[in-house]
Structure formats: structure tokens, C-alpha cells
Predict the structure of FXYD domain-containing ion transport regulator.
Amino acid sequence: MATTETMFTDRSDFDYDYETLRTTGVVLAVVMFVSGILIALSKKFTKCVKSSSNSSSSGSQIPPKTEVPPQTV
């Protein structure tokens, strides 16, 4: 039994600091959330800018026709 106790006394050289892990996780979650919102909004605004610049430069252009697929019952 003495050899078994000496083998399992040192469980790990690494000690977990749960407060630091929790803080790091929250910070990373906030950064990813904000960057996702910024990416989504930037794509939305770039589409608006492109469409407004095309319509203002073209003057009185006929709006493009949209095709509706036939309904299948």
C-alpha cells in the first residue's frame, strides 16, 4: 500500500484557477458577440450603400422585375 499512496499523492502539476478561467471565458464571449453583431451590421449597411449609390447615379431607371416561382400544389 505504501507504493500506491506515493504514486497518487501528486495528482497534477497544473492547478486550475477557476476565477481566471471564468473571467477569460466571459471576456471572450463578449468579444465574439460584439464582433458578430458588428459583422452582421456592416454587411447590412454595405448592401444599403451599394443600392442607394446605384439608384442615385442611374436617375430614372425602371426597377428590376422580380420573378415569382409558380406554386405547386
Summary: Confidence is low (pLDDT under 50) at residues 51-56. The radius of gyration is 30 Å.
